[in-house]
Amino acid sequence: MAWNIVEKILDAHLVSGKMVPGEEIAIRIDQTLTQDATGTMVDLQFESMGVDRVKTDLSVSYVDHNTIQVGFENADDHDYLESVAKRYGEIFSRPGNGICHQLHLERFGKPGATLLGSDSHTPTGGGIGMVAIGAGGIDVAVAMAGGPFYLACPRVTRIWLEGKLQAGVSAKDVILKVLQVFGSKGNVGKVFEYAGPGVATLNVPARATITNMGAELGVTTSVFPSDQVTKAFLRAQGREQDWVELKADDGASYDAELKINLSELEPMVACPHNPGNVEPLSKFLGQKVNQVLIGSCTNSSYRDLKTVALMLRGKKIAPHTEVGVACGSRQVIEMLSQEGLLFDFFSAGVRLLENACGFCIGNHMSPGTNAVSLRTSNRNFEGRSGTQSAQVYLVSPESAAAAALTGVFTDPRTMDLPDPVEDPVAFKIDDSLFLYGETAGRGIPEAEIVRGPNIGQVPSGKPMEEKLDGVATIKVGDRITTDHIMPAGQRLKYRSNIPVYAQYVFEHTDPEFYGNASRNRDAGLANVIVAGESYGQGSSREHAAMCPMYLGVKALIAKSVERIHRANLINFGIVPFVFSDPSDYDRIEKGDRLVIDGFRAAIAGDGKATVRDETKAFSFGVEVDLSERQREFLLCGGLLASIAKR
Ligand code: MIC
Ligand code: SF4
Q1: 127 and 141 Cβ atoms separated by less than 8 Å
Q2: Is the distance from the beta carbon of residue 119 to the nearest atom of ligand 1 less than 6 Å?
């Protein structure tokens, strides 16, 4: 039988289930990654599972999101994470080392292996030929404890690449083109596999830029073949032994296909406020830009930042435009520094930022009121930058550098472009900020776990009640992201402290939500969220389920729900219903009293229920498609409660 790459990797890791698209399968996870903003909850949940050490081939705990350290909270989190890594055999990546996805690609990613990460951009690893999937923290904790990961067996779309990118057009423009075609909703349950003669023209970091932003499509993951280019990258990282060839068999079948001629691509831009709103950059030429930020896990490789440095060489940034650059890793910044390229940034007037997520998560350099900000990151959701009124556009490093110099949207192909930057024959390797490599997989049983006052507890769920007697506490529209549900930025430091963080649920969408939800909960009423299409887009943060659970949210009724968030809701005992007839959405209003008499029975049965809107005096149908396992979680009050019961 002829297989595609996704089928090959999944089949080699299959633990249970049949490889039939849409059916639930379980796969063995070789590697995990966590980052600090989700990692404290992962480690707390892992600790509660009572295993003596991590059971994967490799588990890395990165610190890259919460590095601001205003107050004690972030530092407490770092100490806790380090001590758990030491105790249980994770490798710990110290703050300052860089962004998890860039570092994992450089130092640990392996073609043909599976990677599960508590961050939605984990599919960056697909650039090196891994099946790399983003998931909620508790799913990662289970994998660290040796359990399999459950997912719907995906449908595979082939993206056939031909031709070669012109100078000034790069990998970001490729993925923005893919986003323009497929949009940021409606791609749940798919994997995008890249193929064709154009693949060989893209180096590993370029491929990783493309697979990284598969997260914005909402696909389960994206994957490239592992070829001679992959081998050269691994050799340059001193890891040639990790290379294996991976390609689709002749005649492998795909569910759908898109052909892209790289030679014909032009610079693209994702417009406010969604990465799926893609237009050609040419539409905006000459419009003023207040801020340019270059970096994030999408575009912070050696190739990208060297290209930017060379474009800025000997020039000055535009007078009314502020410009920041953040390198993806210490390897990148050290190499730029050795080659004198940091001088080009400083001399041009660029502000050099920490090797971390920083601006991308609204943790740094929020733009001014109504400012236009051009970024090389992957998300431009409303308010994510830290400024509600800012207009954030996503572009390639070349387009960003062009705007940094001119102060307006500029086609980089009209600028003085350097020769193409190739990856070096040998990257500069210094793993000294990775701790506990010698005890990885074993840990140090006697190591003490350090818990400062910022380290709270994981809230526990209660078994599902027979009847749902509740209120439509909030009604939201389409494409509500986890940034809307659980803001990051200045609230990020409360990630380990659920009672405090819960105060900010829907902070900007409905400032009354916390008060109303708490009142309903205390009066014994369930809170219900009513939503449109594609609810829960974006990040993997399980806090967007955990904090609503803490506030007594028992059900979501949406037109559709995104993959990672749906799994998180189930893991935390919240039922992700969809409308049987989506037009019923229009009839419900915030504050309506909603009742499901046979709530528990419906979940134990076929997942279909009738909701009575007592305020409007009408009834409507809702349904939820559950596996046996998911049904059990919901009935018990969540995954942790279900583990405790066993
Ligand atoms: C993001 O880019 O939104 C984040 C912050 O990296 C999240 C994880 C988190 O919320 O901690 C993600 O992408 O999963
Ligand atoms: Fe960090 Fe931004 Fe990447 Fe999320 S998308 S991991 S915040 S750099």
Answers
A1: no
A2: yes
